[in-house]
Amino acid sequence: MTEITPELQKRKEKSKNTLAQVYNLPSIPLVMMEVTRLLNNPNTSAIELAKVISRDQALVTKILSVANSPLYGLPRRVSTIDFAIIILGFDHIKNIVIALSMMEAFKNKSDKNLNQKKYWTHSILTASAAKRIADDLGFHFTGEAFTAGLLHDLGIPVIHKYFNSEFIKIQELAEQENLSYKQAQQEVIGLEHQQIGNLLAQRWNLPLSLSDSILYHHTPSMAEQNVPLAAIVHLADYMTVKLDTGCFQWDGNFELDKKIITILNLRDEEFLENFIMRYKEPFLSQVDAIQI
Q1: Does residue 73 or residue 39 have the better pLDDT?
Q2: Residues 158, 201 contacting (CB under 8 angstroms)
Q3: How far is CA 140 from CA 107, 113, 120, in A?
């Protein structure tokens, strides 16, 4: 655990104040608000929901891309948003819309310093793997696992967009001075991307279990809410590194929290190793299928 020095605390408070004072920090996207409103009404039909989502064709394309991805595990191809709503169910659609809307809000296409393609590939792979792992281990929060997996690194594009010079400095320290990204983030802004993602999730009033899984996706045994959810996101994230498929550069020196073995009832390290290797082919198929 990083020692909280006076200098680190000062950098941390300065960064928090910067985030609090950013007036154009995106509010909840309109489509997300409308979808949430409709889903809170038990009389909403799939047709009504499809009509709202269809206003954003980029969102429709991404939902269909998610639904048809190999790791998502649907038995047949989904070609329309209406059918996606029926086969996925309202809860899964809501989770996908929330996650995709938040990611879109912080996209910054104009800067080459953040590789958007690699970031999206890593995020969608982690999300799909988290859902698949939750399914395979018999957990019932598969939709939440997908959302948490997609948003686990949300703090990275936030740093890129609102602390751009600091973002560049973090990458320079990590790539040229052999610091870990964890150390570099602490050195430059006093906060890590998981803390920033958690702050944003709280601002948007997302469920505590979701913001908690973002905060603790590197240290899931420390989670305070849904510990298995944080553990599954951690495992999915780790698997991108272990299987060298869809990993993201900020996950260099990734340390597995071995307490997830007990949390997820994975018996022992040998069982975990075999469990991970069973995902090798699905991971490769998923990356091949991702369309940006």
Answers
A1: 39
A2: no
A3: 31, 38, 25
C-alpha angle 82/85/86, rounded to 5°?
90
Render the burial of 249-265: b for 16+ CB within 10 Å, e for the rest. Answer: ebbeebebbeebbebbe
Residue range 155-198, pLDDT digits in tens: 998 888 888 899 999 999 988 888 889 999 988 998 899 999 89
In the chain, the amino acid numbered 247 is C
Distance CA 291, CA 39 (A): 28
Give the side-chain half-sphere CA count within 13 A for 267: 7
- Both tokens assigned to 74: 């649907």
Among 166, 160, 169, 126, CA closest to 146: 126
Q: Which residue has the tokens 């209406």?
A: 82
What CATH number has the domain spanning 6-24+113-289? 1.10.3210.10
Residue 287: partners with Cβ closer than 8 Å, 6 or more residues away: 121, 125, 245, 246
Token pair listed for 66: 């998610």
Tokens 């598969």 belong to which residue?
A: 142
Give residue limits of the domains in the chain. Answer: 6-24+113-289, 27-105
